[in-house]
Structure formats: structure tokens, C-alpha cells
């Protein structure tokens, strides 16, 4: 799917790479982990399918994702926002630290805490 920038240039979406890596997701402000499998990955986000969870995350939740790359014996952690969720699948958009801080601060002020 293509979209256009404000100056009319066509913007191509980032290339997605299929993967089946194990992942854990923690929702900021909630306890517990969501065990998932990452289905695809791009430079801006990823698709995850929930394998096991005591609760269901919601669209708009801010999360910390940990992906275990067993073949490389490495673990990566990144922050993201749940952009959409349907059944056991969800799309996440990666966030930079300053974006996460801004969104967490906005959520905090919206809850009145």
C-alpha cells in the first residue's frame, strides 16, 4: 500500500521480513507478561501473535518487547505502541525513548494521577 507525503511524493511502506521468533511483551502500568511469536518485522514495527497471556492488551497500550534470537544467542528489547489488535494478533509501532516518554507523560496527565 502506498501513501503520499504532504508534498505529493509517493511513500513506500517499509519492507517486512517474515520471522517466527519468540517474544515477550510487557504493558507499561500492568503486571505480567504476554508470550508471543513475532510474525513479521520491519524498521518501523512488527506483527505479533499471542501464545499465552493472563490478560489481553488493548490498542494504544505502550509496551516493552523482548525478542529472543536463539540462533544468535542474543536478546533485543524495544519500546512500542499497539496500533491495532484483532483476536490474538496485534500490530506494534516501535517508539524512540523520547516518544515513549512523551506518550507515557500524556497518559499520566489524562488519568489525573
CATH fold name: Thrombin, subunit H
**Structure summary, number of beta strands:** 8
Q: What are the secondary-structure elements, in order, as H or E?
A: EEEEEEEEH
At the fourth CATH level, what is the homologous superfamily?
predicted glycosyltransferase like domains
Query: How far from one another are the termini?
Result: 40 Å
Largest sheet: 6 strands, antiparallel, barrel
- Highest-level CATH class: Mainly Beta
Summing up helix and strand content along with how strands pair, one would put the structural category as mainly beta
The order of strands across the largest sheet is 3-4-5-8-7-6
**Low-pLDDT residue intervals, each spanning 5 or more residues:** none
Q: Nearest-angstrom radius of gyration?
A: 15 Å
The CATH architecture name reads: Beta Barrel
